[in-house]
Amino acid sequence: MEANLTIAALLAQGSQRLHAVAGDPASALREAEMLLGHELGAGRAQLRSQAQRLAGNAAAGRFAQSIARRARGEPVAYIVGRREFWSLQLSVSPAVLVPRADTELLVERALALWPHSPARIADLGTGSGAVAIAIASERPRWHVTATDLSADALAMARANAASLGQDRLEFVAGDWFAPLAGRRFELVVSNPPYVADDDPALRQSDLRYEPTLALRGGPDGLSCLRAIIEAAPGYLEPDGWLLLEHGSQQAAAIRHELVVRGFASVRSHRDLAGHERVTEARAANCLRFNDFASTG
Ligand code: GLN
Question: What's the whole-model pTM score?
Fold first, then answer.
């Protein structure tokens, strides 16, 4: 880039290079603003009100590097090291999935399903901690337990909880319910990996940079969702709720699995794009294997 450009000129050049990856000019400009704002320590409003200010060559050079990384497909969140979720600023790294706006639906439903307080809630595969921390921030009296198989993800989730002043969350390492043996919850939420292993999307754009552990859900994408549904009755209180995020074409299969396992009040909800993205179910009539074990 040329020397001594104004903020407006840098944004014009930078966003131009992001059209293809961002999809449309408005998104490209928003992304360029996030990248330049990160370099200058300025928000969007500040960038706009100071559009004719010179950015300085050092910041402009770093901005050019960020634009080049984003143009190759790297998510903006990894470049700037953070992402907003539920109005909370979360740190993110390539060890965790970038929190999606659609996943706020999981938080909304969790808060709606359990109006009572306090409750015990488990977030399985917490990643950055987005869902667990958002729920804890809204329900200070709930006991929130977050699990993840990845030690790096768990460290990031812990750091996010600490920096947001959420010191009551419990973090445990392990696969789905494995670290929760013998415990029961009023609510279990999860945004597990659900992309089919051969989905070409895994080799395109942003997903290439995200952890496969957080994305790949087996041959049909449903392996982790099925494992969670199968085990959930052993970890839910009677009338406890299971709340799952899944792919846009998986809702019917998930509802079927839940009904077959004896869950009640099975219902799917649509995301911002109108796709069925979250399904909830109550553990009303589920076979509770743990309950039978002691009578034998
Ligand atoms: N929603 C993500 C995507 O398709 C996938 C996240 C996941 O597998 N949990 O981009």
Answer: 0.93
